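Hi C.,

You asked whether I'd gotten around to modeling the 536-residue construct. I have! Everything is below, sequence then structure, no commentary in between.
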Amino acid sequence: MVGAAFLGCTREPSDPVIATFAQGEVRESDLDTWRSFLNPRGASERRRLDFDSLERHVIMRTLAAEAVAAGLEEDPTIRLRIRQAVDERLANALHQEVMESIEVPDAEISEYLRRHREELEKPERRTVSLIFRRAGPDERERARAELEAARRRWRAGEDFATLASEISDSPSRFQGGRLGTVKEGQLPEALDRVLFPLEEGDVSEVVETGAGLALLRSDRVLPAYTMDGEEARRRVERHLRRPRFEEAWSELVEELTGGRVRHDLPALLDPKTPPDAVISRFGEETLTRAQVEILAAPNPDADQPADGGGDVAATLDRFAVNALLAAEARRRGVHEEPARERELGWIRLEQLSRAMLKRRVDAMMPKAGEELLRRAYEERREAYRLPDRYLLHVVRRPYSPEAPGPVYRDLVAIVEAVRAGSASFEAAAGGEAGPAWHLRSEVAGWGPTLLRTVSELQPGEVTEPIQTDGELWVVQLVERERGRLQDFEAVRDRVTAAFERSHRQRLIEQVLQWTLAGAELERRDDEAPPKETGEG
């Protein structure tokens, strides 16, 4: 039976039993504390399935009981995983305790409010969308006629975002023309004068800009705002507490770990080093080579290695530091708080249930034979295509919304010079933008607007200035290299991994359903909890 005794907890008399199952009973506090335990951990395989909280809880405890009966508690890998998870949770609890211990005097909060009153006030702002038509001096009448026609279509009921996607020359067309939220003075003066008198939902008359003409839509008006006193004091207190906390936390970590964490990485890399050789020392504790290999091996609950693909030294540092912080948390009695005691008990059960689930799924996994793998490859051939590559000239400049003019004008000058043929991109940019190859995934990291814009460019074409996260960009495509399809032998390992992941997920669902069916769950509460998808 996996219950209160297993968790090492006592029960309150007022704590009602809400369900029974083959391994014991579920009390109201079990479900409440288990939900709290899961929330900061994110969704697991079980939470993504269509079980309600009680069902997931019963599945976890049933699998944990099977793990105990099978002797998995004594498995060195599982014991180390439990230790790792418990230490991490206690280190986080100590972190929170130190944070809450930092006090900021009321007088200091009041003085900050007096000196920084303007930071607590926000001016009126507008969320704005744009339809822009690029036009030189000889093209302005045509562009004006096109925008006036677009405005008439909007007045007749057509969607502004659809119109922007259809006819705008601005990269914002990929977001339905949406530029974002601005305060007065952030846009060029000509646009400011038109935008801020508009009512919410109105579209401007055609307005001329340096590079063409535009329609502006005031999507939303955000009124000027002054934070109320209590909210202001809470925010200021958090702001002033942060540097004090960071200093106190750094001092504590240094006090606990300084000179006390050492790793013998050459011995770890030496194949002749025996499994019981000590590789890591922290305080009075050690890790052997066998234990280090457990920590560095792929985590059974994740597709990536336990260290997220980083180096082993970083993994060992995290383990050692968390262990020393957890020891300090125990010295301070953090682990003895009733809620914390229950939380640590759930960690133990959760790790055991995961281990049991993995064992059962591993026993059912089909062998990935040649025929099955080739069929899986054919079904997903495009997934194994090498990514496109782009040879690009790129100029990116820091961009301040408070003073957008000079930077924007410089980049517009580069664009106009290249389009007019009066200078190459590199010459117009002052030699700072020599061409370089970029994978599609790298361009995607620059943001969706840049990716879509670059994907649509033809060789030789150059973008308008594009704003992303504090920068303005101008990009010219020199050459595009389409990705080629890789043959089966080149991607055999990837096909095998994808095959196993797909089958593993289906088997996980089967095992969880079978576990619930065999748990003999009987609810005692009058109202059964609603079904949850667990995706949030």
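If it helps when you're writing up: Confidence is low (pLDDT under 50) at residues 41-50, 302-310, 530-536.

Thanks,
B.
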